[in-house]
Amino acid sequence: MAGVSVYHRVVDFMEQNTPVSGGAKPRGDSGTNTPESGINSSGAAPAPDRNATLIRYWFLAGAVMVFLILIVGGITRLTQSGLSIVDWKPISGVIPPLNETQWEAEFDRYRAFPEYQQRNKGMSMSEFKFIFFWEYLHRMLARAIGFVFLIPFIWFASQRMFTRRQFKQAMLLFFLGFAQGFMGWYMVQSGLVDNPYVSPFRLAAHLSLAFAIFGACIWFAMETWPRFTRVVKASVHHGTGSWYRSALWMVVILFVVQVVWGALVAGHKAGYFFNTFPTMEGYWLPPQLWTSTPAWVNFFDNIVTVQWTHRLIGTLLLLATGGLVWLSRRADSLLKTTALSLGAGMAVQYLLGVFTLLLHVPISLGVIHQATAMVLFGILLAVIFRHRRITRAAAVLRQSA
User: Fold this and answer.
1) Are residues 103 and 140 in the same domain?
2) pLDDT recorded at residue 271
3) Residue 215 near residue 377, CB atoms below 8 Å
4) Which of 180, 262, 265, 266 is nearest to 216 (CA)?
């Protein structure tokens, strides 16, 4: 009976630390648990809560939209289309040029800026329409994301379907969305002055915000997802050790740094140089690594050092993920499965990076490489989330022993 009592204390803990959607009643009010705990007083899986399910789909829809705009954004960058629209008109910019007169006026505006004058002199109208299309599609998707978030939010709020926690999460997403819109235009402006290239640092900030929005959507969705929140007693003691926690944080830190340095590689166009592997034109340590002073500047401004750092961190990340997978071999089935998926995906991503480099960054591979990074980020968040749930349950068991 003591074991049963401890087990129910774990269940109670998981209920108290999982948000309950608007119409759901916590255990004690109706004799059932919240859907997130995965267990009710009779031991059966509870019926899903409609509010939680709808809000979860809303968060996941946001994640899908961010993923789509990441793909289009990658195509826009690799086709050098990002500076084709030289002004920001949130409302009137929805309507593209509709006749030859309007196209000529749009083209004239583009010809007044450095990209045309320094890189695309003599560009034809058809070539301009091609790059205009990708930037226009990128901006329209950004507007569509706004509606995907705003319209359901108004309905959920009017129906009082949000918990206080979920309302705060929605406010955070709106803040990140506005910040991303500002950063996008701020990034474009950096290429409209003297140098017709966007700032690599603003590009890194723009990409990082996209990952932050995607990650927030995935995390918030998992909080209302019984598959991820439910903890079985038999799994509590697996995947909670200090070695596992250290390995997981190592992977997280390396992954975040790798995403930022990947953006710097893209911004500096460093992937078009040293297209050999594993060495850089025969060098493990190219002589150009430390040409700038002070030395730390090379990590951000020297294209040789930026690419070398991206290679190094990618290799360390692959090894760290392999260690995490090995430590997950005795974890509960969901944590083990997500960790294995992360390891397999990381190996594929490493190969994609190598082939993207060897083939001089073809558009298709460049976009797939970027998109795979975001998929891996979602899987990594699932590993973190599941490990966190198990660790909290284990702490309650230790206190009750």
Assistant:
1) yes
2) 94
3) yes
4) 180
* Cα 62 to Cα 156: distance, rounded to the nearest angstrom: 15
Contact criterion met (CB below 8 Å) for 200 and 297: no
What's the domain range around 159? 49-230
Residues 217, 257, single domain; the answer is no
- 80 and 214 both lie in a single domain: yes
Give dist(CA 282, CA 273) in Å, integer: 13
Q: What's 231-277 look like in SS3? A: CCHHHCCCCCCHHHHHHHHHHHHHHHHHHHHHHHHHHHCHHHCCCCC
pLDDT digits (tens, 9 = 90+) for 216-260: 999 999 998 877 766 655 455 555 578 888 999 999 999 999 999
Give the CA distances from residue 395 to residues 43, 97, 365, in Å, rounded to whole numbers and listed in that order: 22, 61, 44
* Residues 6+ positions from 386 with CB-CB distance below 8 Å: 228, 239, 332, 334, 335, 338
The dihedral over CA atoms of 306, 80, 118, 92, expressed in degrees to the nearest 10, equals: -130
Average pLDDT over the chain, rounded to an integer: 86
Say if residue 252 is in the same domain as residue 384: yes
Verify that 226 and 330 share a domain, yes or no. Answer: no
Please give the structure tokens belonging to residue 350.
């490493």
Same domain, 309 and 248: yes
3 state SS of 280: strand
Which pLDDT score, from 0 to 100, does residue 39 have? 33
Among 176, 196, 230, identify where a domain stops. Answer: 230
In whole angstroms, what is the distance from residue 270 CA to residue 307 CA? Answer: 6
Is 76 in the same domain as 172?
yes
Domain boundary among 230, 252, 272: 230
394 and 369 within one domain: yes
* Residue 314 covered by a domain: yes
Token pair, residue 277, equals 């592997």
Q: Which two tokens stand for residue 294?
A: 């002070």
Tell which phi-psi region holds residue 113, choosing left (phi > 0), alpha (psi between -120 and 50) or beta.
Answer: beta
pLDDT tens, residue by residue, 12-30: 444 444 444 444 433 333 3
- Three-state DSSP state, 91: coil
Integer Cα distance of 200 and 264 in angstroms: 5
pLDDT at 237: 55
